[in-house]
Amino acid sequence: MNKPWEKFFNLSIVQFMAFPETIRGEGPIVAAIEKIAMDPFWTGIEISWIKDPAVRKQVRGLLETANLPAIFGAQPPLISQRLDLNAAEPDMRKKAVDQIIVCMDMAAEMNIHHLSLISGWDPGADKRAEAKKFLEESVLKICEYGQSQLISVNLEIFDRDYDVHALLGPLEESAAFSARIKRDFPDFGLLYDLSHQAILNQNTRSALTLLKDHLVHVHLGNCTLKTNDPLYGDKHPRIGYTGGAVGVPELTEFISGLFEIGYLEEETDQANKKKPWVGFEVKPMPGESSELLLAGTKRAFIKAWSDL
């Protein structure tokens, strides 16, 4: 591709994964965000919960000064606390919904208007239908509150069988769930991660074609399905990790697929349309620095873009 990628989308980095020492809402959050914000290569950032209100205020000012759009990822507080939006017990579901509402309030404090979440865990085949009803009930409550805060919601599709064991899950079921929520909240949609593609036993074109009417956010990442690898599962190693599923060719194919389904559009007048989001989710492994990981990620993307 000989056109600048900035014309087509916001390219973000998932800050709490690139700097995992901040994933619990504490630690050197400001320093991590500053490192990303000072690099104009990234035209978006994805942050998560920040427990200290003074730090949230500082981050809002930082994002405004850097002119850096942000998305709020609510996956860490859900996963780290094992909160389940589709739990059979009403009190457990309420606790999960309440946590997302707290996250929405945090997002609003930082002038962030998009939030990503994850379904609860798969209870097994005999209880899935009931769990989906519970999840729908929870997400509708969240979307209603989000509407009052001018925050749109998307749900990230995880695996059901390998690592995370989430309810959603299989792409057909995820698309059907999204269609139900969109009846009441048209700005709802799905977040699909390239790193989950192999885990979900999918290929780029069939997956993106199935999800094209529901995609509102995309992640680029890597995984390995080799059971003897310490990074087996959804660990988000660097692009090109030996034994991983995603290198530069897979990145190129996936980005090409995003153009094919219309998620990315070559002829769109972006002055009259919000740019879609494409974000890298990568995590430093033991012995790797976050800074070198980000530099390598940028090089992989530049090569993939040039190969389009």
Describe the structure.
Helix 5 packs parallel to helix 6, helix 6 packs across helix 7 (171-184) and helix 9 (248-260) packs across helix 10 (290-306). Strand 4, helix 6 and strand 5 (152-156) form a beta-alpha-beta unit. With 308 residues, the chain is an alpha/beta fold. It has helices at 15-18, 29-37, 53-66, 75-80, 90-109, 128-148, 171-184, 204-211, 248-260, 290-306, and strands at residues 10-14, 44-47, 70-73, 114-118, 152-156, 189-193, 215-220, 277-280. The protein contains 10 helices and 8 strands. The chain has an 8-stranded parallel beta barrel with strand order 1-2-3-4-5-6-7-8, surrounded by 4 helices. The model has no long low-confidence stretch (mean pLDDT 95). The protein is 41% helix and 12% strand. It has one domain (5-306): Divalent-metal-dependent TIM barrel enzymes (TIM Barrel), CATH 3.20.20.150. It is globular.
CATH superfamily: Divalent-metal-dependent TIM barrel enzymes
Beta-strand portion reads 5-15%
Q: What name does the CATH topology carry?
A: TIM Barrel
Distance between the termini: 5 Å
DSSP E strands, number? 8
CATH architecture: Alpha-Beta Barrel
**What best-fitting shape do the alpha-carbon axes yield?**
globular
Task: Describe the structure using short key phrases.
308 residues; alpha/beta; TIM Barrel; 8-stranded parallel barrel; globular
